[in-house]
Specification:
With 296 residues, the chain is an alpha/beta fold. The chain contains 12 helices and 12 strands. The mean pLDDT is 95.
Length: 296
């Protein structure tokens, strides 16, 4: 996963700082322990490679065994992973590993619910409404939940929104300038709030038309317009619904016939999945520690 080491290092630096004073004071350096990461509620698991990276950065002697696959649904009480290794590393890495795992699993779980609500005939996509610095992980979690990624950033797709249209002097002018600059190398998407704007985007040669904050009736008419244009010209154009779409409204939006639905809530409003880690000293390690204390 691109940039994972940097993200993990930054998270540990933020949490550990100059040292884990509690663990260092209480736990002997050589003590070994084992742990279980357990789901406290049902959901989709995402982020196991990130959790592994956290513990391995603290100690290469940590052994991490996943008990479920990435993208798998787990039930409350189910073991997600088992760990063994230096007790200090397990205790110090616990919160950072769980923070990543809970956040990403929450995104994957909400994405799965949205995919199931929308049905098979429409693509559920994320947006750029992500936590700064964590976009690569949050978009990864969307994929693990069965969704798809919209553009990753400002560099990999043209998306002409209302403010671009105003500055450029209209949809036709904006699309013309974008096509001249990018050719066919990048897809050009145009945000449309009215049927008149949908017609203008079609005439300008947009590849994707975003139906922004439209009513269900407007969406159905817009989809019909685009399909008629595709039939008449043979040119592929996709429709995308966006804005004000809730989980409850998703089935009705999908039923309008749009090709894709983009949802900012997948990443900006997903609740963290409740996940915990239970640690215990290995019996053999505890016995060895007692023996050390008895020595004169």
């Amino acid at each position: 996963m691109r940039g994972l080491g940097t993200l993990v290092a930054a998270a540990l630096r933020e949490d550990v700082g100059s040292g884990d004073v509690t663990t260092t004071a209480i736990v002997p350096a050589g003590l070994r322990a084992r742990a279980r990461i357990v789901a406290r509620q049902g959901g989709v698991i995402a982020g196991l490679p990130v959790a592994v990276a956290v513990f391995r950065r603290l100690s290469r002697r940590v052994r991490f065994r996943a008990r479920v696959a990435e993208g798998a649904w787990v039930e409350p009480g189910q073991t997600i992973a088992e760990l063994r290794g230096p007790a200090r590393a397990l205790l110090t890495g616990e919160r950072v590993a769980l923070n990543f795992l809970q956040r990403l699993s929450g995104i994957a779980t909400l994405t799965r619910r949205c995919v199931q609500a929308a049905g098979r005939n429409v693509l559920i996509m994320d947006t750029r409404k992500t936590t700064p610095g964590l976009r690569v992980l949050e978009k990864y979690a969307v994929r693990r939940g069965g969704g798809a990624n919209h553009r990753f950033g400002l560099f990999d797709q043209v998306l002409i929104k209302d403010n671009h249209i105003r500055v450029a002097g209209g949809i036709a002018a904006a699309v013309k300038k974008a096509r001249a600059a990018c050719g066919r190398r990048l897809l050009i998407e145009v945000e449309a709030e009215t049927l008149a704007q949908v017609r203008a985007a079609l005439a300008a040669g947009a590849d994707i038309i975003m139906l922004d904050n439209m009513s269900l009736g407007q969406m159905r008419r817009a989809v019909a317009l685009v399909r008629r244009h595709v039939r008449d010209t043979g040119r592929r154009v996709q429709t995308e619904a966006s804005g004000g779409i809730t989980l409850a409204r998703l089935p009705r939006v999908a039923a309008t016939g749009v090709d894709r639905i983009s949802l900012g809530m997948l990443t900006h409003s997903a609740p963290a999945l409740d996940i915990a880690m239970d640690i215990e000293v290995e019996p053999q390690a505890r016995q060895q520690e007692k023996s050390k204390k008895r020595r004169p």
